[in-house]
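Lecture 7 notes: from sequence to structure.
We start with the chain below.
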Amino acid sequence: MKRNIIKIVGALMLVFGVANAQAGVIATDNAYGVFDNSSGQRYLDVQSHGLIADLNILVSFAKCDNPVLGLAGGQCIGKGTPYENEIVLRLTSPGGIKVDLVTQDTFTQGSTGAGQVAVTFDDEGAVRGPQVQAGVFRPVGKLSAFDSLDMFGRWTLSIGDTSRQDPLEYYYSQLIVTLEGEDQQGDPAQVPEPATLGLLALGLAGLAMLRRR
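Predicted structure tokens for the same chain:
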């Protein structure tokens, strides 16, 4: 009986863990694009309201020596200089507040290139190194400029590559927000959704049956 109880409790913990792990991602864009001596925008539309306590953004991109990687991503194919100093990334709030994530010459030219990476820009992240790498790093500007704003509306990620050859490839981005009134992990202090409540009820019923036995 003890083994069955442990299984039920474990399943319930898994359900709640998965739900909470996704709580902070409020908008995603996955429109792949290639930028070579050009710039463009990607939009992250937030459909709900809430005051921002902390905002981070994850951006997945690649900067390689030719040829481009394409939708499959992966490691750099070309062995030449990727010119990572050409990367420009900026986030703009629905109200027009701009924060630079990466500016020209934030990185050095680089050596062989890191391939497709996922970088989370976070004011509390690590100090950036001279070359692109995956991880959690501080942006050039301060994302705290968005604190206390209502998250609702269209956020704009501006993407740029300042010189020809060795294009910048964009894969996807995620806007990650902790709202005022949430805990440090970004888990909302709110009533569970009906589906989650139903799972909890089933689990408790199973525990009661096992106890009777």
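Points to note: Residues 1-23+188-213 form one domain. The mean pLDDT is 84.
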